[in-house]
């Protein structure tokens, strides 16, 4: 696989992760915390895939196989970091929704 294909795989995984995070938030807002958890788990799997690709690239770099840093690679890294940030923030927001639902005496599902 060439660098461009690798970079697009990171973008794909990160985009999938971010989409899953926002689906999790939507479900939590509606009180469906089981679905929200499933979406967060899916997001985590996608982030791990992207991170594994990135780690492989870093190992190659450490072993002397240097890659040119392209705008596309920077774009992929940006996508990955924003997916991680979305996961972290949305996880906290879901906890807030749980607290709100519990405070109102609404059963959590």
From TrEMBL:
Annotated cofactor note: Binds 1 Mg(2+) ion per trimer.
Record-linked Pfam families: PTS_IIA
Cofactor: Mg(2+)
BP terms from Gene Ontology: phosphoenolpyruvate-dependent sugar phosphotransferase system
Keyword flag Cell wall biogenesis/degradation: no
Active site as annotated: 75 (tele-phosphohistidine intermediate)
InterPro entries in the cross-refs: PTS_IIA_lac/cel, PTS_IIA_lac/cel_sf
Superkingdom of this protein's organism: Bacteria
Modified residues (Phosphohistidine): 75
Keyword Transport recorded: yes
GO molecular function list: metal ion binding; transferase activity
Chain positions recorded as Mg(2+) binding sites: 78
Gene3D superfamilies in the record: Phosphotransferase system, lactose/cellobiose-type IIA subunit (1.20.58.80)
Record keywords: Magnesium, Metal-binding, Phosphotransferase system, Sugar transport, Transferase, Transport
Record-linked PANTHER family: PTS SYSTEM N,N'-DIACETYLCHITOBIOSE-SPECIFIC EIIA COMPONENT
Protein name, per record: Phosphotransferase system PTS lactose/cellobiose-specific IIA subunit
Annotated source species: Thermoanaerobacterium thermosaccharolyticum (strain ATCC 7956 / DSM 571 / NCIMB 9385 / NCA 3814 / NCTC 13789 / WDCM 00135 / 2032) (Clostridium thermosaccharolyticum)
Upper taxonomic lineage: Bacteria, Bacillati, Bacillota, Clostridia, Thermoanaerobacterales
């Amino acid at each position: 696989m060439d660098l461009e294909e690798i970079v697009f795989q990171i973008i794909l995984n990160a985009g999938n992760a971010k989409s899953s995070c926002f689906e999790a938030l939507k479900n939590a807002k509606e009180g469906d915390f089981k679905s929200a958890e499933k979406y967060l788990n899916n997001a985590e799997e996608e982030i791990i895939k992207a991170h594994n690709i990135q780690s492989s690239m870093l190992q190659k770099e450490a072993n002397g196989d240097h890659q040119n840093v392209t705008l596309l690679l920077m774009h992929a890294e940006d996508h990955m970091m924003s997916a991680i940030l979305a996961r972290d923030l949305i996880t906290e927001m879901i906890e807030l929704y749980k607290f709100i639902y519990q405070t109102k005496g609404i059963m959590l599902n």
